[in-house]
């Protein structure tokens, strides 16, 4: 039987931005084939992967490129002005293929190992305590995002990279702009210029007065050009606080909406590491799907993907596939650890996943211990979701205790 090919014109689901309730994947993406046609934001037609096994195949198959500008113009899910820049410039290894990708990643791996995360655990726990003190000092009601979920990962990544924490508002503002799904070319250019200036000054200072941080290591221990270090640093800085911030805030929101699960964690804190894995699976905070471009014809999940076509992976839907776990729509803090794809898969799997886990475990343990009566300070429907952002979460989370 001949595998189906992607149709050029027909009624198709469009690139989804809204979730059901507050975290469930859009219903239109579920119950169908694991690979199906999808209409992207600019009207182009590509493929959507919602099956767990099919997603792992695409993310680990060298026939699918992370360099998104390789595809045909008619099927690209990214704007033309990003394609014309061929991504975001030197050092942006997250959207590079081997061997370029491996060159950059090999320089960074030792900073993000399991051992490195364990070595940083005590400092991370100190930072969490500082964040809890800040939240408590704010008085209640207080915004858990502003006073806890944002500053904790920001301070961790600043110390790792060697970025002065007093300059955090600059990169936090840039990150908030870059992460908008409706970001236009002018706003992108403005944010990019701000980041370039920020890292240009930082790199110059590290070359003159190196420390024990990652940026100092890259400036003094490698032959990377400043433009490459900027690209690496910008990716790590933005991703390092945006993702963990939203997991903390959305995870706290989820625990507050599931008090029986929260009671289990307070009764048995040893469940917290497993609960973090369940939150990562259940929430799957990537709003914008990872995209790969087929370098040659390939059959995935019974669908024929032609060379040059775009393939998007719906991580929230993939992590709710019954092929991954039983009863996937149930949030269960006692669920055995699953091989979820919240951190991706293959050579582009999240470099900072071990550090993120360390932060999340410490943060949720500290939050539950410090505030046994923590609760929402507003009705559930008043919490603004980040439906407009690349990384999903909540804009603010007013809490009391």
Layout of helices and strands, plus pairs?
Blueprint lengths: L34 E5 L5 E5 L2 H9 L3 E2 L14 H5 L15 H9 L5 H6 L1 H17 L4 E2 H6 L1 H11 L6 H11 L6 H24 L5 H8 L4 H32 L1 H9 L4 H12 L7 E4 L3 E3 L2 E3 L4 E4 L1 H4 L34 H18 L4 E2 L21 E3 L1
Parallel strand pairs: 2-8
Antiparallel strand pairs: 1-2, 3-5, 4-10, 5-8, 6-7, 9-10
Helix pairs in contact: 5-7, 5-15, 7-11, 8-9, 8-11, 9-11, 11-13, 11-15, 13-15
What is the total tally of β strands? 10
Question: Looking at CATH, which topology would you report?
Answer: Cytochrome p450
Give the oligomeric state.
single chain
Tell me the count of domains. 1
Order of helices and strands: EEHEHHHHEHHHHHHHHEEEEHHEE
Give the class from helix and strand content and strand pairing: alpha+beta
Characterize the main sheet.
5 strands, mixed
Average pLDDT score: 88
Strand order of the largest sheet: 1-2-8-5-3
Going by CATH, the homologous superfamily would be Cytochrome P450
Q: Output the CATH class name.
A: Mainly Alpha
User: Low-confidence stretches at least 5 residues in length (pLDDT < 50)?
Assistant: 73-78
Percent in strands: 5-15%
The percentage helix is 40-55%
Apparent shape: globular
Which tags fit this structure?
401 residues; alpha+beta; Cytochrome p450; 5-stranded mixed beta sheet; 3-stranded antiparallel beta sheet; 10 strands; globular
């Amino acid at each position: 039987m001949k595998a189906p090919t992607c149709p050029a014109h027909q009624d198709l689901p469009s690139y989804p931005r809204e979730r059901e309730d507050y975290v469930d994947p859009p219903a239109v993406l579920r119950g169908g084939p694991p690979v199906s046609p999808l209409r992207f934001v600019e009207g182009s037609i590509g493929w959507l992967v919602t099956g767990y096994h099919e997603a792992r195949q695409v993310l680990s198959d060298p026939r699918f490129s992370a360099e998104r500008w390789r595809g045909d113009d008619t099927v690209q899910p990214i704007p033309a002005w990003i394609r014309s820049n061929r991504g975001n410039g030197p050092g942006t290894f997250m959207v590079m293929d081997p061997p370029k990708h491996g060159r950059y990643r090999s320089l960074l791996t030792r900073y993000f190992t399991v051992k490195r995360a364990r070595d940083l655990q005590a400092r991370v726990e100190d930072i969490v305590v500082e964040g809890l003190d800040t939240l408590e000092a704010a008085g209640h009601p207080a915004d858990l995002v502003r006073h806890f979920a944002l500053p904790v990962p920001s301070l961790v990544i600043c110390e790792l990279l060697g970025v002065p924490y007093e300059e955090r508002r600059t990169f936090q503002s840039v990150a908030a702009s870059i992460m908008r799904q409706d970001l236009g070319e002018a706003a992108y250019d403005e944010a990019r210029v701000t980041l370039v200036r920020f890292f240009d000054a930082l790199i110059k200072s590290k070359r003159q007065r190196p420390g024990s941080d990652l940026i100092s290591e890259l400036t003094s221990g490698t032959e990377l050009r400043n433009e490459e270090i900027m690209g690496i640093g910008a990716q790590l800085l933005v991703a390092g606080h945006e993702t963990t911030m939203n997991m903390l805030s959305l995870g706290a929101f989820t625990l507050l909406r599931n008090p029986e699960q929260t009671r289990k964690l307070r009764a048995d804190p040893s469940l917290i590491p497993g609960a973090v894995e369940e939150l990562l699976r259940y929430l799957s905070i990537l709003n914008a799907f990872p995209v790969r471009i087929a370098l040659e014809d390939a059959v995935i999940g019974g669908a024929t993907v032609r060379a040059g076509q775009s393939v998007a992976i719906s991580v929230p839907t993939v992590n709710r596939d019954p092929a991954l776990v039983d009863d996937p729509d149930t949030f269960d803090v006692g669920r055995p650890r699953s091989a979820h794809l919240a951190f991706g898969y293959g050579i582009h799997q999240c470099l900072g996943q071990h550090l993120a886990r360390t932060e999340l475990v410490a943060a949720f343990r500290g939050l539950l211990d410090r505030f046994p009566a923590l609760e929402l300070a507003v009705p559930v429907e008043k919490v603004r979701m980040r439906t407009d952002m690349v990384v999903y979460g909540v804009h603010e989370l007013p809490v009391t205790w």
